[in-house]
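Q: What residues go here?
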């Protein structure tokens, strides 16, 4: 009986069954502090996930924004969410984008990015192609964090199972190589690492 009850308690915490914990709620509120100006990137639109997505993920906070870089005339989108580690860890672009008329071109790749403080972060990068006449390439970077460095584990649900809450970030942009510009999603991601370090809060163990 004790084993069964213990398992239920763990599952309840991971799924946020008994409501958000204090630190997770605070983490969600602080997401709005991500600036509208990130380095050379200027926000042009801001919204939130719809109610069904928020309920599915158990989010206590989310931002969905588009940024443009006037210098390079590039555009990229940023989605940042926080919530219980179970649902936050399992949803990936490889699951979502094919249902939006994109096809996966290749297996995801793990990339390492060093921020301005010299700290190494890891992200997954995956490329999709739109299934329309334009057949544009879409670059997507994503990773998870408990408030410190960003990582790209093979099994995030297992990796973060003991965490009271979890962040996920996703950067998306169409390939702009034909204009001779750098990957917009990667460029915004590099700037985001600097902007986010004073916004995210580290996990506090209970």
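A:
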């Amino acid at each position: 009986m004790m084993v069964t009850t213990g398992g239920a308690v763990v599952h309840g915490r991971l799924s946020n069954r008994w409501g958000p914990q204090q630190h997770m709620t605070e983490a969600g509120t602080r997401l709005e502090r991500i600036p509208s100006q990130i380095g050379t990137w200027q926000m042009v639109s801001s919204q939130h996930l719809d109610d069904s997505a928020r309920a599915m993920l158990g989010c206590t906070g989310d931002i969905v924004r588009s940024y443009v870089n006037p210098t390079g005339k590039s555009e990229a989108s940023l989605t940042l969410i926080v919530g219980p580690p179970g649902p936050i860890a399992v949803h990936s672009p490889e699951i979502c984008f094919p249902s939006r008329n994109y096809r996966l071109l290749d297996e995801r790749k793990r990339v390492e990015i060093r921020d301005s403080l010299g700290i190494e972060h890891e992200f997954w990068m995956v490329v999709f192609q739109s299934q329309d006449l334009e057949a544009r390439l879409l670059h997507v970077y994503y990773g998870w964090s408990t408030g410190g460095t960003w990582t790209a584990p093979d099994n995030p649900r297992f990796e973060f199972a003991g965490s009271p809450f979890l962040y996920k970030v996703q950067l998306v942009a169409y390939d702009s190589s034909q204009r001779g510009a750098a990957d917009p999603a990667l460029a915004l991601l590099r700037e985001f690492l600097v902007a986010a370090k004073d916004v995210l809060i580290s996990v506090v163990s209970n």
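A: Context that may help when evaluating the design: The longest strand covers residues 120-130. The CA atoms of residues 127 and 139 lie 5 Å apart.
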